[in-house]
Each structure stands twice: as structure tokens, then as C-alpha cells.
Automatic annotation (TrEMBL):
Species in which this protein is naturally found: Companilactobacillus zhachilii
Membrane-traversing stretches: none
Similarity annotation: Belongs to the DpnII type II restriction endonuclease family.
Function: A P subtype restriction enzyme that recognizes the double-stranded unmethylated sequence 5'-GATC-3'.
EC class name: hydrolase
Protein name (Swiss-Prot/TrEMBL): Type-2 restriction enzyme
UniProt keyword Iron, yes or no: no
InterPro entries: Restrct_endonuc_II_DpnII, Restrct_endonuc_II_DpnII-like
Domain Restriction endonuclease type II DpnII-like: 14-302
Domain of life according to the entry: Bacteria
One function term, GO molecular function aspect: type II site-specific deoxyribonuclease activity
Reactions performed catalytically: Endonucleolytic cleavage of DNA to give specific double-stranded fragments with terminal 5'-phosphates
Presence of keyword Nuclease: yes
Amino acid sequence: MNLKSYLKLSNNDKFEYFMNTRISTNRRPTYWVNWENVRNNIKEHEINLNTLNYLLGKNNIKEEAKSLFLSQPKLLRSIPIMLASRDEKMNSFSFGDREMKVNEFDFINPDLSKIDDYIKFLDATGLLDVLKNNEIGSSLVDYVFGVQVGLDSNGRKNRGGTENENILEINLKRLVENNNLEYSTQATARSIKSKWGLVVPESLDKKRNGGRRYDGAVYNPDTNIVTVIETNFYNGGGSKLKAVAGEFSDMYNTSLKNASNVDFVWISDGLGWNTAKNPMSEAFQSIPNIINLTMVNNGFLKDIVLNNK
């Protein structure tokens, strides 16, 4: 289906078409591991880790570790990452003979007068046994590389949050390539006014300092119209979907609907909308241009921007 045929549909049929053409994921291959981050994070520890290889297989591991740390205190900087932590200071709760207590271990500026406490802590974590039994292999660099890959998985949420914005920018670059169009990302009313001389009414959301920041904007010099774009992708459900649908509907009705030389497109996708069909269906009653990535792929965004009046 093309945009012309789509626009002839009722709002309910548009909603059904939208729901039936969604995709299951927006995760590109780079989503799973940011290898550059992994390499950069391990680089600062590489010399220390190669020195700490000395402890592998040592039977008197506590004495050897104490001696090594006293002679080269900077080696302690690499202990947290060996414990899969990015903290420079680590607080540990423990039971003493008669009381509970919390010990703080500073691995950047270690208190060497308490080196025995550091050794007791490392022993209690199990790290010294792992080194003693040589369970890691022959290279702590290789071990920490693997640890970094695991820690980097925590960044997937952030990568997932910006993935649709990255996809939008790629599509906008392609859109302007062979057309008399200009685009901007993270566009504000102020930047649009400065760049193209058009006034985008500010959203009524008082919580947004500095005004709303749209994920993208495309300017068509032939029509003198700017199309502001919001994009998101939801793999899972939750109350946020209902809130977003309501927010964008309110924004369109109160700020953008009657604005001169301004159009609005909401690009959304993902199976999460299965859990929030009613809010999205209601949004279709207010917002004319709600499309998904399949529809973008089929030229809907291009036709909206080129043909808006």
C-alpha cells in the first residue's frame, strides 16, 4: 500500500494497517556489544592485569598478593573490574565477632595501612581462590575482556532507547539525498526558527526546560513546510505507552494542529503496542500521520514530506 491509498482509509482501518505491519525488533547487530567501549575500558587496565598474572597459580596467594600490592599499590586499581564492578570504592557489609559493620575499600587511593583488610576482602570475595587455582586461564587480560563484554550488556537499555533515533537519522539522510529537502535531528522550536524561519508552537509541557526537542525535522523549501518528527519503539508493554499516546495526541491538538507551515509525523513500532491498543487507536483519531518503520520503508514519510501543503 502507498500513502495515497492509505489516506483513503478510515481512522480505524489505518490503525489496523499500522498494527498489522509492525516489526518485531529494531535491534541492529551493533545493539548487543559495543566493542569500542570494551576495548577502551580494558586498555587502562592492561599493564596492571599483565602484572597481576604473576599471582596465577600461587599457593601462598595471600602473602604474594599482599607483597605485590605493597610494592605496586596502583595494581589495586584493577581489582574492581576483576570483580565485574566499575566502582572505584567498594563498600562491604560483614559480621564481626560481636557486631555488624561496613568496610569501605578505596582502590584508587588505597590505605596501605589497612592492606590486611584489603586481602581479607579479596579472599572473602573468592577472587584469591580463583587466582590460586588458576581457574581463569593464563591471561587476566582475556578474563577481564570477557567481564567487560558482560558489563557492556548493561548498556543495551541505553542503546535500545536511542536505536530508533539512529534509524530515523539514517532514513532522513536517505530522504534528503536526491530531494530538495533539509533535515535536522534533536530539533527545537528555536533551532527551527533560526535555521528555516518557521515558527513551531511550543508544547504546553512546562516540565521541559528549553522547550520540546523533536527527534527529527525535515524542511521542504518548495512548500515552505517543516515536518517535525517523534519516533519510538516498544518491545514490551507498560503504562508508558498509554502516557506517550496521550502526550502526543494532546501536543498535536493543542500546539501543532492549527500551526502554519508545520506538519507532524509520529513514527512508532514494536510489539509492545499489543498491550496498549486502545490508547494507540485513540491517537489515530487525533493525529493524521502515525506510521511505523515498514511504512517508512514503503515511502510514506517521503510522500508526506514532499506532498504536504
